[in-house]
Specification:
The chain has helices spanning 9-56, 61-69, 76-81, 109-116, 166-232, 236-251, 256-267, 278-281, 289-295, 298-306, 316-321, 342-357, 368-378, 385-403, 407-422; strands spanning 87-94, 99-103, 129-135, 138-148, 154-162. It is α+β, with helices and mostly antiparallel strands. The chain crosses the membrane at residues 20-38, 180-202. Keywords: Membrane, Transmembrane, Transmembrane helix.
Length: 431
């Protein structure tokens, strides 16, 4: 069976709120994470672009002269271009990669030693090498710009190492945070906007599911009652045997899902008798061996009738196996012991008990004590001893309650049971 449907507006609101809240939280976290990484990447790319533009300022005619002369000392142009508030240091190399100039400003010696040890990347004339490097817990930008002469020939390289100033770092952090929060806020706002629409759709879906469930159960009741009226002249048998089955299953601690299958199977347990000729089904006396053989085909016929209905797949085990015996002498499959499904073993007990204590056209009803003696005697051969024992404990009270009830009262009791195990009823308006 599917999960229980919400029964009240509060349950419907609560279910949608929880599910939409969880979905929005997951999507918001994903969107925020993606936005964080995207904005972080964009910020780092912007920082690289800024560092690249700054580094290009050093690839000037003055720098060409420095490289050509090989004696950069005293060139005020370099000192002017070197912004010591942003640049950690600068190195100049000739075309062969030999250093001809360096300026590290006031950088720490330990930092300078590490940066000097960095291998020079020598890009082609029209290319630039740039990358982030981590040194002594600092996140620095490393840029190498080729220097071309007036004739376009590659004459050397400028390598700059820079850090982001405090204002830029703060701006990047603000950008990343704003992007992530905007993404999260957009998801949350969308969830709030969609909530009324989804609530209406869920309510409609719930109403349709409930209507379908009610229709299925009504069809089961109608079909089961039609067979019962043809067989015994009354539909009370179906109500009684189903109520007995529910009481026994509850006493055994059977799950609500299995009880719902038990209820559906109980109402349709003899549906296969539709295919039994009236001359055999309604015969007042004992059946001949040939007639008995025909009668014993009704579990198989019943299974064939419900085959292909997924909703009755589990209930079909009662239709097919409610005449099996624990000792393997039952029909139609001769199952033995726990090979017989639990709900079929439960139903077998109550079906025989109601047949014994009910009036039929060919017999008078048996008293409670006599019927219980038969159930006790057949325990271990026909019936599961644990199930038979549990039934012996609850049978007297159930028997009095059920046999003294009018048909309308039986219907009401069964309706209350359906409310417990199938969650029927009209959903109140959503307010």
């Amino acid at each position: 069976m599917s999960r229980p449907l919400p029964e009240t507006p509060g349950q419907l609101h609560g279910m949608l709120t929880i599910r939409l809240g969880l979905a929005a939280t997951v999507v918001a976290l994903i969107a925020g994470g993606v936005a964080y990484f995207v904005e972080t990447y964009r910020a780092e790319q912007a920082a690289l672009e800024q560092a690249t533009r700054s580094a290009r300022h050093f690839a000037t005619p003055a720098m060409q002269m420095i490289v050509s002369a090989g004696r950069p000392d005293g060139h005020d142009e370099l000192e002017r271009l070197l912004d010591k508030s942003r640049f950690v240091g600068l190195q100049v190399f000739d075309g062969d990669g030999d250093q001809v100039y360096e300026n590290w400003g006031s950088s720490a010696v330990s930092l300078i030693d590490v940066l000097r040890a960095q291998t020079l990347k020598r890009p082609e004339r029209d290319q630039i090498h740039r990358a982030w490097i981590d040194v002594n817990s600092e996140h620095l930008i490393h840029v190498v710009v080729p220097i071309s002469g007036s004739d376009g020939r590659l004459v050397g390289y400028v390598r700059t190492v820079s850090r982001l100033d405090a204002e830029t770092v703060q701006a990047q952090r603000d950008q990343v945070r704003t992007g992530a929060l905007t993404a999260v806020g957009a998801v949350v706002a969308t969830a709030f906007v969609l909530y009324p629409l989804m609530l209406a759709m869920l309510r409609r879906s719930t109403d349709l599911s409930r209507s379908l469930l009610d229709s299925n159960l009504s069809l089961i009741r109608s079909l089961g009652n039609a067979v019962a009226k043809k067989d015994s002249g009354t539909d009370a048998h179906n109500y009684r045997v189903t109520l007995y089955a529910i009481g026994l299953a509850e006493a055994l601690g059977v799950s609500a899902e299995d009880i719902s299958h038990l209820v559906a199977g109980a109402f349709l347990h003899d549906v296969g008798k539709i295919g039994i000729p009236d001359s055999i089904l309604l015969k007042g006396g004992s059946l001949t061996p040939a007639e008995l053989q025909v009668m014993q085909t009704h579990p198989v016929l019943g299974t064939e009738i419900v085959t292909g209905n997924p909703w009755l797949q589990e209930a079909a085990v009662i239709i097919r196996h409610h005449h099996e015996r624990l000792d393997g002498k039952g029909y139609p499959d001769g199952l033995r012991g726990e090979e017989i499904p639990l709900i079929a073993r439960i139903f077998a007990v109550v079906d025989v008990f109601d047949a014994l204590t009910s009036e039929r056209s060919y017999k008078s009803p048996m008293g409670l004590d006599e019927a219980m003696q038969i159930i006790l005697r057949e325990s271990g051969s026909h019936f599961d001893p644990r199930i038979a024992s549990a039934f012996m404990d609850i049978a007297p009270a159930l028997y009095v309650t059920i046999t003294q009830a009018e048909t309308n009262e039986l219907r009401q009791r069964l309706h209350e049971a359906l409310l417990r195990y199938f969650k029927l009823g009209v959903l109140p308006p959503v307010v």
